[in-house]
Write a structure and sequence with these properties.
single chain; alpha+beta; Arc Repressor Mutant, subunit A; three-stranded antiparallel sheet; 10 helices; 19% strand; elongated
């Protein structure tokens, strides 16, 4: 890449990072949207950019063998692709060191309903789940490659996984993450209880109460809070495993292999 194009691309990266929309490129380079779109298409054909989806491009590293590579940091795609959303579930659990298990897909919680939970863009895979009022609390801002990204804080990470154990990779992994959370410096019973009340979902209190009773004690304030919010009806700790023993005081079916959570 010689001369002015190289300088323009360098300026674009400096202003908006290595992943950008045509609109961002037009503003950064002081071009019309049409002019920017044509320039992005030309740079793509020259192998300098790769197109993730219509109107969205990423810079191809100089040492890349092919442009069909997995992006170095797929997190930067989340705010561009999904709007009001945050990284959560197992991906946030990895970030907060609640697990050493690695997941291929990035777990994303969205404000808007999503018809397809599994989505893939340029070899970057995402698992999407809609939670009502998802971004109104419990999301922390981090910066990656000049992009503002939201990720669930430690407490919301746990509460979201108790709301929907699929977000934690299944019931047993949710339990493992919870145990790491209460051992960590992040643990805060008051915040955890407050977040559970904000989501106001009966299944959360049953799952959380069961775990708190075992790990914190039946008289702990958080255990008592969960007990005070018990609702009618029985639920499964892991809805994907619809079997197990019923713990009547928590109205919760626990799979046999999860009975011992010590």
């Amino acid at each position: 890449m010689e001369g002015r194009p190289k300088k323009q691309l360098g300026e674009l990266i400096r202003q908006v990072g290595e992943v950008f929309t045509v609109s961002e490129a037009s503003q950064a380079l002081n071009l019309t949207t049409t002019e920017a779109a044509k320039k992005m298409a030309r740079w793509k054909n020259q192998g300098w950019l790769t197109r993730i989806k219509r109107g969205l491009y990423a810079v191809v590293p100089i040492d890349a063998i092919t442009s069909d590579r997995v992006l170095a940091d797929t997190w930067v795609l989340v705010p561009i692709l999904f709007g009001k959303a945050y990284i959560g579930g197992w991906t946030a659990a990895e970030y907060w060191d609640f697990t050493e298990q690695l997941f291929r897909d990035v777990c994303v919680i969205t404000q808007q309903a999503v018809p397809n939970k599994a989505q893939k863009f340029h070899n970057a895979s995402f698992f999407l789940t809609h939670i009502k009022n998802a971004t109104t609390f419990g999301a922390k801002t981090i910066w990656r490659q000049e992009k503002k990204i939201l990720i669930s804080d430690p407490h919301k990470t746990i509460i979201d996984m108790l709301y929907d154990p699929r977000l934690g990779g299944g019931g047993q992994h949710v339990i493992d993450c919870y145990k790491e959370y209460i051992k960590s410096s992040h643990f805060n019973a008051e915040i955890l209880g407050n977040y559970a009340e904000k989501l106001n979902n009966g299944a959360i209190f049953k799952r959380l109460g069961f775990l708190c009773e075992i790990k914190l004690g039946k008289d702990h304030l958080l255990t008592s809070l969960c007990r005070s919010h018990l609702t009618k009806g029985n639920v499964y700790f892991d809805p994907q495993i619809k079997q197990g023993s019923l713990v009547t005081r928590w109205k919760l079916f626990i799979p046999v292999n999860m009975i011992n959570t010590e």
